[in-house]
Amino acid sequence: xxxxxxxxxxxxxxxxxxxxxxxxxxxxxxxxxxxxxxxxxxxxxxxxxxxxxxxxxxxxxxxxxxxxxxxxxxxxxxxxxxxxxxxxxxxxxxxxxxxxxxxxxxxxxxxxxxxxxxxxxxxxxxxxxxxxxxxxxxxxxxxxxxxxxxxxxxxxxxxxxxxxxxxxxxxxxxxxxxxxxxxxxxxxxxxxxxxxxxxxxxxxxxxxxxxxxxxxxxxxxxxxxxxxxxxxxxxxxxxxxxxxxxxxxxxxxxxxxxxxxxxxxxxxxxxxxxxxxxxxxxxxxxxxxxxxxxxxxxxxxxxxxxxxxxxxxxxxxxx
Amino acid sequence: xxxxxxxxxxxxxxxxxxxxxxxxxxxxxxxxxxxxxxxxxxxxxxxxxxxxxxxxxxxxxxxxxxxxxxxxxxxxxxxxxxxxxxxxxxxxxxxxxxxxxxxxxxxxxxxxxxxxxxxxxxxxxxxxxxxxxxxxxxxxxxxxxxxxxxxxxxxxxxxxxxxxxxxxxxxxxxxxxxxxxxxxxxxxxxxxxxxxxxxxxxxxxxxxxxxxxxxxxxxxxxxxxxxxxxxxxxxxxxxxxxxxxxxxxxxxxxxxxxxxxxxxxxxxxxxxxxxxxxxxxxxxxxxxxxxxxxxxxx
Lengths: 319, 298
Known about the structure:
The complex is a heterodimer.
Chain A: H1 6-34, H2 52-59, H3 61-94, H4 99-111, H5 114-124, H6 131-138, H7 143-148, H8 162-169, H9 178-206, H10 210-218, H11 224-235, H12 237-252, H13 256-262, H14 273-283, H15 287-313
Chain B: H1 7-34, H2 39-44, E1 56-57, H3 59-63, E2 72-73, H4 75-86, H5 89-120, H6 126-136, H7 145-154, H8 161-165, H9 172-183, H10 187-195, H11 200-211, H12 213-229, H13 232-237, H14 247-257, H15 263-283, H16 285-294
Antiparallel strand pairs in B: 1-2
């Protein structure tokens, strides 16, 4: 073991410790204290308002809508982006050729600045001149309409199908109609996140011992699904715990798409927490309220990370 | 890979993967294509991927009193020139480089000595410091952006380069990663350096740093990608001071100003902002994927 080097050690850890305290720990306390006040930047002082800010969080419809928006986003994006990530990883792992090409393509959105891509998506989904709606509309009156109208399925009234209706009444305002907005924002989130999850699953798959598949086969698990259920999925347990945690935390932090496209609208349907912190705390200078949201947000993140650590320490294999 | 698949099943798999790839690529296609087309081609959705590059008259140029003849523009050139002329895009890119480079350098300067002390030196309170590192890993900086913003504005630092860099100077994850890596460096190597009369400080930069290059590279990729693309923190820290804008802020500003007639230049801006990292990624895919995922493993 190395010798003692007391004095010099403190010089080495001091900068990191000081910065940790000032930048990471102190702000948590600052937010906690300010969440009980009505502080605004520029004011000389503040009043203690007790739990008023937290009461508003529960009571006011703006904030219940905020919690609902964040929850909706997380509940949609986490399972879908993980499912697609896992699906892509399994497919890429099982094809004989071009696996690396797909991997590269699916990873591109992870590298691209989300803000820039959000704006591009907004253009692509523009109601009148966007590529998506134009392409969809060009299918009207052709075999595409017949196919997507589902009139060929027994007992389906193709006049009532989404595609035929849209051909008649116009394709959706993806960011203007509240029926679609949250879904579209979530779609962009999934588009951006699933490649990241795919790569983690691909790494997880390489660590599954091949003997296990042979063993499963000998035990009669011949079908692909059986092998997945008995070997692959349990062995991916630790990867899944990690992927779920990081995707959930990141989804809670969604901001770029909301700020640049919807600003929380229409009628607060995409008013997610990070955007609320920015709007209340920074734009409207309602620091007390912004701090209260910050604390609730931190509580969520802390809970999730601790739950993950707990699961990892128990070395879950879901079996 | 596992089990045998018939050619039919193989082609079904490829069909699904190709469909996915088309959806993933769609916005990249739109972005690069629009960045080369004229406004008219964008609105009418004509001209194919590259546009037909027919010259058009820049009405704004005519309004300024120039003869129509000297106001003829080729779409692709016009779009990319406008991207730099309409807004100080070069300045934004430079800011992006300055900020991401500074953040990474400071992170390393702060984290390496700490990681070395935590892994190779004995001192009273070491476990406490490491406990702090583990605890701080729980706190995402974005989540505490508001109190950090308040603290910075109390000391008058908002709207400065410092405000863009300071919150990221401490990377507890970097400390954690480097400590784990240093644990695997044999003590003999360090002892030998000490025998040669090297100071502890010298050991960090001349012995530990070179052994840590692969880990450091992964961390560099992680750090640079995160901060080049970050929009949330710059949005909060910079209000109005345009010469401090980072590329995403500049892009957002461009969109805010656009009156619906500047799509070509705007898509050119997006292309310019997104391209450096995409190209770097395509050139060194393995390293990038390693950097993004390994360091994502909190």
